[in-house]
Amino acid sequence: MNFCPNCGAPIEFAVPDGDDRKRNICSATGEIFYDNPRNVVGTIVEREGRILMCRRAIEPRLDFWTLPAGFLELGETSDQGAARETFEEAGVTVDNPRLFSLIDVTHIGQVHIFFIADMHDDHYAPGPESAEVRFVGEHEIDWPQLAFPSIHRALSQYFADRAAGRFSVHVESLAADDWKAMRLDREPRV
What we know:
- This protein has 190 residues and is an alpha+beta fold.
- It has two domains: 1-35, Ubiquitin Ligase Nedd4, Chain: W (Single Sheet), CATH 2.20.70; 38-181, Nucleoside Triphosphate Pyrophosphohydrolase (Alpha-Beta Complex).
- It contains three helices and eleven strands; from the N terminus they run βββββββαβββαβα.
- A hairpin with an 8-residue loop joins β5 and β6.
């Protein structure tokens, strides 16, 4: 940020009084602009033992597979955002969202939140951000073709919990090294 979005004055990057880290501060008014993590919200929807997956039609990670998920919008609760993203990306209306996984991805300033949700009816179709939507079994997932390490982690936790016969809430962090260590392909196989 170079200029104040309110008055156009230059921005200073400094530690405000009473704070412990540098912030963007308007040089004219002293208003502080906080840069906080963005929330990604999505769902894990199972039907007949198979999981709803979307092939991305947009960057980043065009043509890789993901759970239906995207950025939380202002004015939404996290479960409302997850339901909206599921409908936008896969045409699926969901009910009864239950918190399943919260993954801090601090090196990119994001928190990824996944809910287990029930499919309201049998309709599904790709939205504008999905090239393809399908239900896949655990052994059909091409793990290196998943779009993001957080998707890999959430699905791994889901299948482990399903095998154990009980679902827990999972909270963890993925550091930059963890993110890089996940064996995801660099190029999609279409």
